[in-house]
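Sample log: LOW QUALITY PROTEIN: aspartate beta-hydroxylase domain-containing protein 2.
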Amino acid sequence: MVWVPPGPPRTDCLTLLRTPTDNPPPKMSLEWLVAWSWSLDGLRDCIATGIQSVRDCDTTAVVTVACLLVLFVWYCYHVGREQPRPYVSVNSLMQGADANGLQNGYVYCQSPECVRCAHNEGLNQKLYHNLQEYAKRYSWSGMGRIHKGIREQGRYLNSRPSIQKPEVFFLPDLPTTPYFARDAQKHDVELLERNFQTILCEFETLYKAFSNCSLPQGWKMNSTPSGEWVTFYLVNQGVCVPRNCRKCPRTYRLLGSLRTCIGNNVFGNACISVLSPGTVITEHYGPTNIRIRCHLGLKTPSGCELVVGGEPQCWAEGRCLLFDDSFLHTAFHEGSAEDGPRVVFMVDLWHPNVAAAERQALDFIFAPGR
């Protein structure tokens, strides 16, 4: 048993309220107790209401969650719908319908807004808008050189020396040289050269059609001051030509194995180029310096020459020749009719000094049809 010392008699709240004759407690204490009781009642009611809403699956809560889900799905669709286009498989080309805008197997630009073909004052504003849209979706990180190039594009194109003047877009601070060593894109060069016989075999099958008509379907005649220059495009300005790819399935499949092939923007091309004897291609500039043009020699008779930036080079069968076509360049075939045509497989590769982040941004900015 524990002994508790006696204390003053206990007085509860009910006694205080019912006995006016006793000494009343301070007024502030009574008001505080009543307010505290009301606060507890309100908190209890709030918790009970919340629990009941969850149990009853309140309509307002369901509608709110549904709206949030719809907004999330819309955002994902909006962000993802204009991603750079992936390479199309050969199987899908075999099964799919022909692309729109094809005439004689060649893709002609149908849009006046095409940045590859538009030479107007609004081009720089369009490019800057595309860059801002890309940075908003992804990041400005690594975009300094592209931003600088677009901001001062007019000055770069107008002040370039006559030996190198890309017609559409100049990326500053890239090493410039008319020709590149094979090691610049070693993997792709070696892969193309290992498949030389495959590409040559498909070309010879195509070329047999020339005996039946002047210009078979799928070939494009290019303007030259003399002779004939025809091309057979598998990829033209970043767009696949399905009918032509079906005729060269192994060559097209090979493009998907190249690590640096430009396949998702308007500066990317892949084609077979044929010069007949007596042909001279007028000196001209390419559209940009962000790419290296690769020529794999398929048939290279004597008397054929490529001149880039005033420096002549000759093709060799089964070997790749890399050059920057933003330099002033020309090609000619001075051989005889008995020598036959000069034939190369041409594919555009990324300049080795364009970083991965810049490549992704340029694919977005110069996407076909953008």
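Observation: The chain is about 35% helix and 20% strand.
Observation: The first helix runs from residue 13 to 18.
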